[in-house]
């Protein structure tokens, strides 16, 4: 199962493909870099217990992606999200995954060590499955997880303890995103986007509700370059809803040029107006959210056509010139 | 400044006369025609005991009360105003310091009551003509009385959430000078013209209010209106009529411009524009936010480093990029029924996989409380089958699944044993019957041994032949080598057997052979039977 991974194809100039033996879903780009090598973690999607996380090395000079058989490990069921420690000063890469628990792994050059397995249930050795999580960039000891049990849990991962657990929604919470050290937002199957401030845990503010009641919101992305904006996607919808947190309820823009449902969104790491999306129509689109929406809606700036439904989009500050996408069993890095 | 001071005193007087919580004067912006912004106000609600810089001074003043009550109130309002300004400036600084150093303000946010927060956050609002309660009041030029402000739809009263948090229930607005005044109270007060008249009298009866700080002279309409106001101070009715005309004029004139400026304000706007608004102390078009949310926003805007994407990004046609300029070309068409397959699996199926595993682990523990909570269809199906099973299996009283499975295993074992014993009972019964027959036969045999043999073996050998397929059934007393002899006899008759079943119970052999005739040797069923009879019969005799 390990060495799985031997195929990586290099193509001329502007994109690189890695082919995995299994369908890929989760993906994360490491903020640390050793010369020109960069680590990318990919998680398999197999509808069985045994799943796999592989650590790949991307070489920007040779435009090649190589698997590291030593840095490949099992994960129980598919990881719902992967993310690296956002603070590059940490000596070893730390990777987090969500699924049955929040798990942290330490990535060394040739080995992987589990650091912790965080379970928020005091009463039992099981906790409700996690749909996603977000690592707080300003306060890297904080990770927020979202769960199907309607709660969000804020972890102090350095101490390995729950900082707080909030009943965030009426239904499953699907995604969570930090805006500030103590402010986060979440989306849910109840169709709402809510903003929370850890200074006042009793209250949350609904800043958006899906137009058809109970249309679940699936993913959420907070624009780290301009915190006024966040974007969310709806179930079975080709729309990307862009929200301005100062004027709740009414989205500032609805981006609807995908010809199929949208699966993933990622804000540009070095621009405050650009967002990339991937959909069932196999397209990755880059949008520039305009100051004023025209009457005919907003057209994307540029597009890329992949070979199959795009399930994942990553646009990392560590590698702002490359957008990572996952479709089928392939992971591609696209030059922006 | 004196004019402003005067306005504030007037507002104070009016709001105190009816003992409401606050008064606000919304003025038409001099820079953005048609937009109403916070100009001044007076806070008359409850305050918290203060513990900040000026605590001592303040306490003295509070003790004095009486005549200086006005001063204390005005001071408080001014402090709120200062706090707002300091927060606005704080929101401008882009540091990562979680506790930014605010310019010294007498108050800090922690000192504020909910109603004060409401009052303070109101300063961040602005309304275009027709927007929100103030905008509409101005557009219609009437008195608006809202007695359920905290429950109102946000379209009717955009600050309803905010009002709820501050328990403000009743809000009254009417046009006043170049703008309008708003009064609010934390009680439900039904509309009453006396109250409106009382405030209006207080506000309009003093002529000096015409001196206003807001410079609106640039707009001739405003000047006209101003004049009208001054000329008609004594006659409220006439004032209203004139003002209505005047405002209608203003409205018409402002409509186009107003629309434009509204859109610009409401749309994304550049970041700079927003910051300017905050810095200028008039906030942005915030609607439907509560005071806490306002804090959240301030906190968020503290750090928004703004960068721009390099030029390379914009030239997406350049060969370096994997992306090409967007054109409306065909992608894979969406297939409604199976959209977002993987994403949905990740969000819905994967958690269920974990839960299912959890269910089984729990079963092993014998702890099944949690199962009631699971909504998984599969688990439900399984549960349903378990309930069917529990109806079939006699249980020992315990109701959990583990016990049920144990019961089922026990029950099956019991049933198996019963089947076995019944079968063997039945066989021995059969044999007993046969033995009975044998005894009869034997008794007969004692009279006529040859008859006995004939009868017995003709009964026990059946041969049926359909073309070349021959089925032989033999039942006889078992002895060594008998089967071998049967097969010898068969091969001498050119019969090739292809399936043999045999069993022996209580010394009686039952043999079923299916065979084929190898060639047309003319062996008939009768010949075969006779041959086999000889094999069995000869030996029988010997026995």
Automatic annotation (TrEMBL), chain A:
Keyword Acetylation listed: yes
Positions in coiled-coil regions: none
InterPro entries named among the record's database cross-references: DCAF7-like, WD40/YVTN_repeat-like_dom_sf, WD40_repeat_CS, WD40_repeat_dom_sf, WD40_rpt
Keyword annotations: Acetylation, Repeat, WD repeat
Pfam short name (any one): WD40
Segments annotated as WD repeats: 166-206, 255-289
Gene3D superfamilies reported in the protein's UniProt record: YVTN repeat-like/Quinoprotein amine dehydrogenase
GO CC terms in record: nucleus
Record carries keyword Transmembrane: no
Database matches in SUPFAM superfamilies: WD40 repeat-like
Domain of life: Eukaryota
PANTHER family linked to this entry: WD REPEAT CONTAINING PROTEIN
Name this polypeptide is given: Transcription factor WD40-like family
Source species: Helianthus annuus (Common sunflower)
UniProtKB/TrEMBL annotation, chain B:
Organism domain of life: Eukaryota
Localization of this protein: Nucleus
Coiled coil: 405-432
Designated name of the protein: Putative basic helix-loop-helix (BHLH) DNA-binding superfamily protein
PANTHER family linked to this entry: TRANSCRIPTION FACTOR EGL1, TRANSCRIPTION FACTOR TT8
GO terms for MF: DNA binding; protein dimerization activity
Ranges for region Disordered: 54-73
């Amino acid at each position: 199962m390990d060495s799985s991974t031997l195929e990586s194809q290099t193509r001329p100039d502007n994109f690189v493909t890695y082919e995995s033996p299994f369908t890929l879903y989760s993906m994360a780009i490491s903020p640390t870099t050793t010369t020109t090598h960069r680590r990318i973690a990919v998680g398999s999607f197999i509808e069985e217990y045994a799943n796999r996380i592989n650590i790949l090395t991307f070489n920007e000079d040779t435009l090649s992606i190589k698997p590291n058989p030593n840095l490949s490990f099992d994960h129980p069921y598919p990881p719902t999200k992967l993310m690296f420690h956002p603070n590059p000063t940490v000596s070893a890469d730390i990777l987090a995954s969500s699924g049955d628990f929040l798990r942290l792994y330490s990535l060394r050059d040739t080995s992987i060590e589990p650091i912790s397995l965080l379970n928020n249930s005091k009463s039992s050795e099981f906790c409700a499955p996690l749909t996603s999580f977000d690592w707080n960039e300003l306060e890297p000891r904080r990770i927020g997880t979202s769960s199907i049990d309607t709660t969000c849990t804020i972890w102090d991962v350095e101490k390995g303890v729950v900082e707080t657990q909030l009943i965030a929604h009426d239904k499953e919470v699907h995604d969570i995103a930090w805006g500030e050290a103590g402010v986060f937002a979440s989306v849910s199957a109840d169709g709402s986007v809510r903003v929370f401030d850890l200074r006042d845990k009793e209250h949350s503010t609904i800043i958006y509700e899906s137009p058809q009641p109970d249309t679940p919101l699936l993913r959420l992305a907070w624009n780290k370059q301009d915190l006024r904006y966040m974007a969310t996607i709806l179930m079975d919808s080709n729309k990307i809803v862009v929200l301005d947190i100062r004027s709740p309820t009414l989205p500032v823009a609805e981006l609807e040029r995908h010809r199929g449902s949208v699966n993933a969104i990622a804000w540009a790491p070095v621009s405050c107006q650009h967002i990339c999306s991937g959909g069932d129509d196999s397209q990755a689109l880059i949008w520039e959210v305009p100051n004023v929406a025209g009457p005919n809606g907003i057209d994307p700036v540029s597009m890329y056509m992949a070979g199959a439904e795009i399930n994942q989009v990553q646009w990392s500050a560590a590698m702002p010139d490359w957008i990572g996408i996952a479709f089928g069993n392939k992971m591609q890095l696209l030059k922006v | 400044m004196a004019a402003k001071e005067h306005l504030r005193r007037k507002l104070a007087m009016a709001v105190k006369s009816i003992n409401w919580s606050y008064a606000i004067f919304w003025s038409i912006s001099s820079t953005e025609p048609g937009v109403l912004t916070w100009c001044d106000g007076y806070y008359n609600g409850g305050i918290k005991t203060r513990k900040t810089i000026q605590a001592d001074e303040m306490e003295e003043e509070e003790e004095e009360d009486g005549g200086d009550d006005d001063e204390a109130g005005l001071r408080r309002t001014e402090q709120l105003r200062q706090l707002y300004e300091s927060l606005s400036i704080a929101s401008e600084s882009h540091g990562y310091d979680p506790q930014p150093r605010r310019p010294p303000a007498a108050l800090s946010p922690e000192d504020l009551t909910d109603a004060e927060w409401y009052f303070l956050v109101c300063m961040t609002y602005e309304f275009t003509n027709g927007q929100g309660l103030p905008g509409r009041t101005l557009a219609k030029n009437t008195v608006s009385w809202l007695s359920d402000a905290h429950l109102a739809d946000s379209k009717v009263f955009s600050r309803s959430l905010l009002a709820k948090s501050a328990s403000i229930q009743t809000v009254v607005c009417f046009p006043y000078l170049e703008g309008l005044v708003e009064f609010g109270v934390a009680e439900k007060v039904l509309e009453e013209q006396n109250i409106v008249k009382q405030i209006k009298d207080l506000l309009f009866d003093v002529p000096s209010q015409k001196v206003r700080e807001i410079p609106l002279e640039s707009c001739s309409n405003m000047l006209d209106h101003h004049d009208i106001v001054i000329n008609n101070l004594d006659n409220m009715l006439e004032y209203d009529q004139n003002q209505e005309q005047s405002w209608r004029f203003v409205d018409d004139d402002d409509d186009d411009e107003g629309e434009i400026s509204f859109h610009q304000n409401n749309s994304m706007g550049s970041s700079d524009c927003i910051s300017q608004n905050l810095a200028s102390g008039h906030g942005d078009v915030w609607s439907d936010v509560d005071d806490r949310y306002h804090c959240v926003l301030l906190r968020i805007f503290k750090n928004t480093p703004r960068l721009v994407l390099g030029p390379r990004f914009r030239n997406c046609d350049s060969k370096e990029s994997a992306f090409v300029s967007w054109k409306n070309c065909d992608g894979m068409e969406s297939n409604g029924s199976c959209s977002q397959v993987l994403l949905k699996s990740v969000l819905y199926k994967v958690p269920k996989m974990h839960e299912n595993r959890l269910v089984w682990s729990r079963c092993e523990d014998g702890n099944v409380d949690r199962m009631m909570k699971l909504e998984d269809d599969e688990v439900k199906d399984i549960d349903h089958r378990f309930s069917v099973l529990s109806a079939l299996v006699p249980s020992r009283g315990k109701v959990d699944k583990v016990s049920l499975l144990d019961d089922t295993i026990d029950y099956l074992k019991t049933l198996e044993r019963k089947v076995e014993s019944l079968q063997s009972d039945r066989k021995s019964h059969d044999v007993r019957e046969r033995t009975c027959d044998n005894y009869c036969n034997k008794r007969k045999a004692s009279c006529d041994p040859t008859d006995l043999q004939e009868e017995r073996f003709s009964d026990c050998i059946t041969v049926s032949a359909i073309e070349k397929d021959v089925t032989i059934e033999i039942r006889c007393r078992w002895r060594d080598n008998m089967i071998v002899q049967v097969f010898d006899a068969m091969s001498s008759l050119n019969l090739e057997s292809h399936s043999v079943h045999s069993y022996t119970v209580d010394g009686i052999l039952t043999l079923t052979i299916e065979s084929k005739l190898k060639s047309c040797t003319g062996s008939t069923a009768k010949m075969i039977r006779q041959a086999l009879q000889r094999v069995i019969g000869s030996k029988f005799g010997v026995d």
